[in-house]
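hey m, so remember when u said the tokens were messed up on ur end? i reran from scratch. heres the input so u can diff it against urs
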Amino acid sequence: MMNTSLTLNSEIKIHPPCMTKEIIEILEPYKRKVIVDATFGTGGHSLEIIKNTKGNLFAFEVDPFLYERAKKILKEFENTKIFNKSFTEIPNVLKEEKIEKIDGIIFDFGVSFYHISSSKRGFSFKKNEILDMRYNPLVDEPLYKKIKKLNISELEDILKNYGELKNYKKIAINIFKKLRAREIKYTEELNEAILDKIRGNKEKILQKVYQAFRIWINDEIKNIQTVFSFLPQIIEKGGRVIFLSYHSIEDRLVKNFLKNKEFKILTKKPLLPTEEEIKLKPNCRSCKLRAAEKL
């Protein structure tokens, strides 16, 4: 059963954030009055920003468990506030705080190491856990309940669009057949269904299927598109925005958004982690950083 006491699992594992050095160099926090960390996670980026600014930091974390932890981390810093909200709600929060514009913002679209390693919500195919996959387990339904309501066409669309799987039709049929026979409630049951008579690199196939379901159940693409609809309005001239993306769908969306004539692109090509950083932090290997300045 999901722990709903909002007490973090004592086994929580923290992983250093990606490309912190590059973020600080581009964001120049010491010049900023109001910076937003739209995806606080375990706080690595926020803590580096706080070290380098006298301005205010507003942080957003949709996971109520990470939010409780974030409050404890940030309570010693008077110039910070943390909100248990999705980054799609940034305009409403700024309005409530009577802030018209911000001059720095960072988005890290990657799934946090906490969710993979410690959340026990089925984010990893390598652990036998209940299939939940929600960043906020207190709203809506877990994946194992929602997946039962999908028809074959909807399954195909999720696997094709969010997993970019070539054999998405075969995998969708496998999952659908399994669901007709019985409930798929745990990751091992989903793995068994996915891989039935499927050829290819099994680990890569499982990675892509889990990515697809995670993106779908958390509305990740829709949320990014929502951000793009209001971002130009909340950043003042000279303000900087930084995106960290981890797969081609996210990076494509960011790249197209930054063609917006209201921004000057600061990274002609995406910046990538150094080989040294990848050795120290393998989870950063697929990270791409794009940044822009409001005109």
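this time it looks ok to me. Residues 1-11 have pLDDT under 50 and may be disordered. if urs says something different then somethings off w ur setup not the seq
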